[in-house]
Design a protein that fits this description.
Length: 331
Amino acid sequence: MLGDKKIVFSGVQPSGNLTIGNYLGAIKNFSAFSDEYHCFYCVVDLHAITLRQVPAELRRRTYETLALYIACGLDPEKNTLFVQSHVPAHAELGWILDCYTMFGELSRMTQFKDKSAKNASNINAGLFTYPSLMAADILLYQTDLVPVGIDQKQHLELTRDVATRFNGIYGDVFTMPDGYIPQTGMKIMSLADPTSKMSKSDPNENAIVYILDDKDTVLRKFRRAVTDSETEVCRREGKDGINNLMTIYSCFTGKTDEEIVREFAGRGYGDFKLAVGEACADQLAPVREEFARLMADKAYLEDIMKKGAAEAASCALKTMRKVRKKIGFVN
Ligand code: TRP
């Protein structure tokens, strides 16, 4: 099935509504790999339950995330799109890798520290071992390249450390994966507080632009974006709000910083914010339409899930056979 192509793997959690940060930092770039690589794009529902989920919402968002993958341009004929819990090998290898991941390593993960601070009443073991499960996702498919946002860099480094440790004990079992962190759009900041990341768990709705926001909402959110007391559109230290808007505008239009500075020279922030909002809303309009069409066709999405899970499982099985044998499990 995979031929000689190298492997790409990435995952998106079905928790919360996806933001333009998820879009620009990850999903938009996914389709670029389809020709050169065999790509596995996974809806990571096992990861999602490290935070408490409402069952009906988790189920709906699993469909939505898959629909969004497709609406953002991932062709299900060319890519393996699937749901993590449909392939039990993820949980199995996740457990195995727990036993090759050190307590100290997991304790150093900044995402664990952030999430435990925010969820003090539910610091469960899954939240702690989240990175070993992510390592399992990646290593199961002998992945070469992992496109992710910069916030996942530490998890990726841990994945490489675990793979190195495992290979060191048992010989070459796992391919060593490289991260692919896009230059632009790697970190989209909150519109309300441009010193922190735009996060789908932010309680301030004005801070976040969702992929599925309609045009009026997008324009309103950008109009309210926090900037500074100057008037010049340019990228400079301390101008976090404008820097962020320039990044977003550049991602949506392909324009360079110099072009943006020239375009808005002598014009106010109001004009600039409107232009960013329009570029964003216009590019997302076809995604929104396609998403609505797909969500109205659950049977189609279920077909895709089924086909994707079968493809993924057959690839995962090869790795699992090797792993079980190397560890000394009886066949
Ligand atoms: N941890 C990733 C995130 O929150 C999601 C994820 C899970 C992932 N497994 C993965 C990303 C494997 C890349 C590869 O964004």
